[in-house]
Hints:
This protein is an alpha/beta fold. 24% of the residues lie in helices and 24% in strands.
Amino acid sequence: xxxxxxxxxxxxxxxxxxxxxxxxxxxxxxxxxxxxxxxxxxxxxxxxxxxxxxxxxxxxxxxxxxxxxxxxxxxxxxxxxxxxxxxxxxxxxxxxxxxxxxxxxxxxxxxxxxxxxxxxxxxxxxxxxxxxxxxxxxxxxxxxxxxxxxxxxxxxxxxxxxxxxxxxxxxxxxxxxxxxxxxxxxxxxxxxxxxxxxxxxxxxxxxxxxxxxxxxxxxxxxxxxxxxxxxxxxxxxxxxxxxxxxxxxxxxxxxxxxxxxxxxxxxxxxxxxxxxxx
Length: 278
């Protein structure tokens, strides 16, 4: 095991995984806070129940939805806490049709368990940009992003002023960086920026332009302008192999080194189960 961890490259010793978007913002107490409902939600749901049994957490789950495309909601029918009586599930979204999307995927033609059979108390809240919401232990702000049917990014800040930004399924263009200052301001000083880096710069400005996703290069530039401290490459291209993702990570580190200003930006590469402490 030591040989695998210390002497092999990441892609040779393990895998980045293939779960779709599902990220927890964990402050260690209070309600659970989760971004998106991708395929990783089943395992995460079970893990929250384990932590709930330790007696230090509330029986409450808050979801923050970037958007409603299927890869971001597909895990909810398998979210075990939703089947538990007395559990409270609050779904926050910038989309007023979030409930419609979740109900539709549990219609009989698609899934055997109807939405109305879920036993948890489920509530939908529509959020607005330009406002700050106090949700449990966190302050939460939302920004609109360029993606089909609109997408939203979220900034989470705790009582110690630690902040993490979750931004996926968003297209930021290198030739229009003057229009991206709003996002740079949104991530200003963030301890962690989880960013859509699905494409290489070449792909994002050629055959995959206007597909609703961004590149690793633009993400570094946004961090530089906004002063974010860490960048986590996220929402990997599904056709990439582990070696491709590892190469993208290495190229991003090199680009950050070549363009480094006064402060370095730590470049992380997301994989299933990655935990980042702030």
